[in-house]
Amino acid sequence: MTQDLRLAVAAELERARARTALLTEAVDDSDLVRQHSPLMSPLVWDLAHVANQEELWLVRDVGGREPVRRDIDELYDAFKHPRGDRPALPLLGPAEARAYVDQVRDKALDVLDRVRLDGRPLVADGFAFGMIIQHEQQHDETMLATHQLRDGAPVLDAEPPPAARIPVTGEVLIPGGPFTMGTDTEAWALDNERPAHTVDVPAFHIDAAPVTNARYAEFIAAGGYDDARWWSARGWAHRQAAGLTAPMHWRRDGDGWAYTRFGRTERIVADEPVVHVCYFEAEAFAAWAGRRLPSEAEWEKAARFDPATGRSRRYPWGDDPPEPRHANLGQRHLSPAPAGAYPDGASPLGVHQLIGDVWEWTGSGFDGYPGFAVFPYAEYSQVFFGGDYKVLRGGSFGTDAAACRGTFRNWDHPVRRQIFSGFRCARDAGPGAA
Ligand SMILES: [Fe+2]
Q1: Which of 182, 261, 345, 396 is deepest in the core (most CB within 10 A)?
Q2: How far is the CA of 94 from the centre of ligand 1 (A)?
């Protein structure tokens, strides 16, 4: 068992590193050190930061080893330097960063060989390794978002996503009643996903698929961006100040729209989930459509609740880890897949594409669950509780399966849209619907 776990951890570390290498080797050194947007770090910062976290947690803490580079801890502490300031720091250059990354990984693998995985809570079930694997995969998604913001010729390539296999439209009724939200049993779940607790969610309707480009274009065509009625006061102020007129990366193309993705410009695909919208845009669309965004609890109930057994599944399709037939995850494709592309990934009640494709904005702020306990450090989640954040759920085409499950929680500022963010709508079902 323990040897299997070691092998699984080593394979996951290797898989994350292959993705990091692909994203950082796709561009030349001048591109690697450049800041492509004030919202993002230079890729070379992400690269060394991933290794620095691995050093802090696996080499020094779990392994009890001497520091590899104590002198650079401060440079790669995300709390010390906002992204906009990072290019001005005396960062490791590309060659130095790569050497550091390799050196840390050698030591981390040596620690993995020797550590007892049934010891203290930090290493039980390989948690610290799982945390570092998820951290690297999360930065790989961030680096993919940086790629989307860079100018110049395309450097990334992938197969197009699968076509729709069945039509998926309309909404699904989720019956009212209690369900189990969060988890006590997911070995690598982060502190903010814990503990499992019962939430009573009244009956509601939720879209069977995320809102598509075609539907979003209707909102634009109906003057949705010019009508304050649909926007919250904060949303409207932001829409005005930022001059929002369409999702990020969209531009007019004759009577329709085109978007630029990873350096390639093409007409929007009508039945693909809309991506690169901020919370305020999602909120305004929902109001225009006579709907609202789902709460986080509603989203999780739609994703996990199995009415036949009353229990919550790990994923909409069951407890088995994601396979390519279930969901558009892991940067296998560089766009969301059309609604109806993943019937094998639907929930028991028939809600599609909750996992993968686009992160989905929910109407909920980010807070700890009842009984929340910091583990292993407050800076992972707790310092963000109650801040100006909205929770996003489900992962995107840029998210790896290691950092995505039915309980996984992401959060960001409501104005952010450089992330792979979309949404679906919900509405109350009213009395008698359950
Ligand atoms: Fe980080």
Answers
A1: 396
A2: 18
39-49 per-residue burial string, b: 16 or more CB within 10 A, e: under 16: ebbbbbbbbbb
Residue that the structure tokens 């009724």 belong to: 173
Measured in Å, residue 136 CA sits from the centre of ligand 1 at 8
Measured in Å, residue 49 CA sits from the centre of ligand 1 at: 7
Model-level pTM greater than 0.70?
Answer: yes
Radius of gyration in angstroms for the set of CA atoms belonging to the chain, rounded to a whole number: 21
Peptide bond into 175 cis (omega under 30): no
Cα 64 to chain centroid distance, Å, stands at 32
* Three-class DSSP category at 327: coil
For ligand 1, the distance from its centroid to the CA atom of residue 47, given in whole angstroms, is 10
Q: How far is the CA of 328 from the centre of ligand 1 (A)?
A: 23
Question: From first to last of its 434 residues, what are the pLDDT tens digits of the chain?
Answer: 588 999 999 999 999 999 999 999 999 999 999 998 999 999 999 999 999 999 999 999 999 999 999 999 999 998 998 888 888 889 999 999 999 999 999 999 999 999 998 889 999 999 999 999 999 999 999 999 999 999 989 999 999 999 999 999 999 999 999 999 999 999 999 999 999 999 999 999 999 999 999 999 999 999 999 999 999 999 999 999 999 999 999 999 999 999 999 999 999 999 999 999 999 999 999 999 999 999 999 999 999 999 999 999 999 999 999 999 999 999 999 999 999 999 999 999 999 999 999 999 999 999 999 999 999 999 889 999 999 999 999 999 999 999 999 999 999 999 999 999 999 999 999 765 55
137 Cα–ligand 1 center, Å: 10
Domains and CATH numbers, the chain: 2-149 (1.20.120.450), 159-434 (3.90.1580.10)
Sheet holding 204-207, edge to edge: 171-174, 204-207, 426-428
**DSSP 8-state assignment for residue 351:** -
| Cis previous bond, 121, omega within 30 | no
Are the C-beta atoms of 203 and 433 separated by less than 8 Å? yes
The answer to whether 355 touches 315, Cβ cutoff 8 Å, is: yes
